[in-house]
Amino acid sequence: MTALGRRSSEAEQGSHKPRVSGSSPLAGTMVMLEDRFVASFQRHFPDLAGQRLVVAISGGPDSTSLAWLLARTGGRLGVSIALGHVHHGVRGVEADEDARFCQGLAAKLGVPFFLAALPPPPKGVSPEAFWRKERYAALERQRQQWGAAAVATGHTLEDQAETVLLKLLRGSGPRGVAGIRRRAGTVIRPLLAFCRQELAAYLASLGEGFRQDQSNLVPDRPRTFLRWRVLPLLVEGFPRALEHLAAFGEELAEDEALLGELALQAVPLLRLGERCPVGKLAALPAALRRRWLQALAATLPLSEPPSREQFALFARLLDRGSPRALDLGSRWVLRREREVLLLAPPPLAPFAPQPVPVPGVLPLPGGFVLGVGERVGRADHRAWLAPELAGKPLVVRSLPAGLRFRGREVRKELARAGVPREWRAAWPVLCLGDTIVWVPGVGVAPSWAREQGLLAELEEPWERHGRSSPRKPSPSG
Fold first, then answer.
1. Rounded distance, CA 4 to CA 216, Å?
2. Is the N end or the C end of the chain the one with fewer CB atoms within 10 Å?
3. Residues spanned by CATH 3.40.50.620 within the chain?
4. % of the chain residues with pLDDT over 70
5. What distance in Å separates the CA atoms of residue 389 and residue 450, rounded to the nearest whole number?
6. What residue spans in the chain does CATH classification 3.30.465.60 cover?
7. Yes or no: is domain 3-154+190-217 CATH 3.40.50.620?
């Protein structure tokens, strides 16, 4: 039976659980690996001492090892942990067993356990991309719920080497080939310097088992093809291939971070409603132009980073003015208007009028959130209304075409306020019957305006549309 066959056969039996004695040579492996882990963690994440962490636990050997390492060395590191598992809704009974295993591990370790279930991916969307995005979003919610400083994942040396090689073979630029970041926002990867073999030996030294996802053992996808077919051949000819690929990715990530910082120092990142002078970008060296576009794309909900073709079109847009617009993907467009660049989000369609709960918060089509008498999370626009409106049938509707309000053309006022043209047809307007009460960004009808009273707030579609920091809320519009 091949190694792959043996692993598949073991996976069918459920959890792996070796048993060894405390005097086994594996006990020395346990101590040495824990010492290395502590030193590595303290070197890379010194700010996390005294903090809480959520460990993303699948039940596999890597994440299970990470949970045991952090549980057993938590006193030395000054961290406490909870386990967070995400159920993807596939693989049936096997996935249910994974969840039960993770819950049992949390009980064994005496730590909190969080479980999240993902909805099925929408039609026309890559399931892998959808699950990855939703998985991290679920883990982030668990982090916030527990008040943790970071989410720790079990990515290993092999994961890093696979990512670097996969991105290189797919034609990615330096940012992609730089591989998995040791730290990205609130996500940390403490095991990038550790290989799977030593982690499996560590679990064996503890006499603890793990789960195995059989789909990861079949070379029918690009990553698993590399894992089971390509990398073993590379290691056979070049024994330190994994280390060298991972080191290359880490060094390239450092270079990318520096070049990206230099690019944004020269030309700040473009936000919705802002204008970027073409001349400032055109004056940058080609390497910094590319990093600027990469940094912009990283703030947007795109399915893929910019391709070589998009970088070439970007250079032509800057140098020749043709094309006049660059499609970034997912209906995001970088548009040139004379000597400035504008960022255009996906257009929003007008929506049907909706009753407004008072007090209450009402999510609207397209990602707007309206609050009347109740605060919303990140208000871009704020107004005080007459208190007696709380007892009246308020509705919110999309901006009527050609509307003038308080003697001003509303669409021009919204343009001055930095509202993208793609949002203006769906811009929310608060009404009492057919009477306009408040146009966010423009103002309140004089008969309903007050210095204090009923608070109304509107939040623009932040996450969906790539805004990373709020403008100061407008006090009267």
1. 11
2. N
3. 3-154+190-217
4. 90
5. 11
6. 268-344
7. yes
- Residue 115 is encoded by which pair of tokens? 């479980």
Q: Position 477: which residue type? A: G
Is the separation of the CB atoms in 215 and 8 below 8 Å?
no
The closest alpha carbon to 453, from 377, 381, 359, 378, belongs to 359
**Which of 179, 103, 112, 183 has the alpha carbon at shortest distance from 150?**
183
Q: Is residue 201 within 8 Å of 65, Cβ to Cβ? A: no
Q: Which CATH architecture has domain 268-344?
A: 2-Layer Sandwich (3.30)
Residues 314-335 have a mean pLDDT of 94
Within 338-388, residue ranges assigned H as helices are none
What amino acid is encoded at 267 in this protein? V
Does residue 92 contact residue 144 with C-beta atoms inside 8 Å?
no
Residues 6+ positions from 366 with CB-CB distance below 8 Å:
348, 349, 351, 423, 426, 461, 464
23 touches 16 (CB < 8 A): no
**pTM check: above 0.90:** no
Rounded to whole angstroms, the Cα distance separating 225 from 7 reads: 16
The more confident residue out of 63 and 477 is 63
Task: Examine the pLDDT at 28 and tell me if it is beyond 80.
Answer: no
Three state DSSP letters for 203-253: HHHHCCCECCCHHHHCCCCHHHHHHHHHHHHHHHHCCCHHHHHHHHHHHHH
SS3 state at 86: strand
